[in-house]
Amino acid sequence: MSTVAVIFAGGKGQRLGGVDKALQPLGDQPLIGHIIARLEPQTVRIVINANGDPGRFAKFGLDVVSDLSGSALDGPFLALATALRVFADDASASHLLTVPTDTPFLPDDLVARLQAAGSPAAWAAADGQHPTICLWSRQGAARADQQLARFSGQRLEDVIRACGGQAVGFDNADQFLNINRPVDLKKAIDIKGG
Q1: Phi-psi region at 65: left, alpha or beta (left = phi > 0; alpha = psi -120 to 50)
Q2: Does 5 or 11 have the greater pLDDT score?
């Protein structure tokens, strides 16, 4: 199995005061640096989905793609549509992994665990649902491309389920901590220091 990962870094970080969430420091590197380090051993390629100046990610040496233009989709639906286009253009990859830029403690066996579900798509569930953390097969990705517009404005997990996807349970909720607010960043600092 060869997996291409797309990191969703296009959010506005409004609950963190409008900062570029991907570049917020956590210990010795920004949030996105932690995610890249977690994903590199599990994937063959990592792409950053972000709008604005791609130069701010230059030090990571990864391709940066902006959201698809002219789409009626928004939020995670637009990010997924963009990731699906990256995947469609990369014939060498068998799977697509999508992850948000604010989950710095992803498990080292994330891809293997999601793939073990054997479904067209599988997303992480740990103390809640994390549908942006999803592994798509070619079959699941093709279905998602057809389903996106139908579910826009609803829940991302509805798209995944419509594609034959399922949730995969993980025990350690800290591995899926979403850093959306200052209190979440403080918790991440505590976890990182501990």
Answers
A1: beta
A2: 5
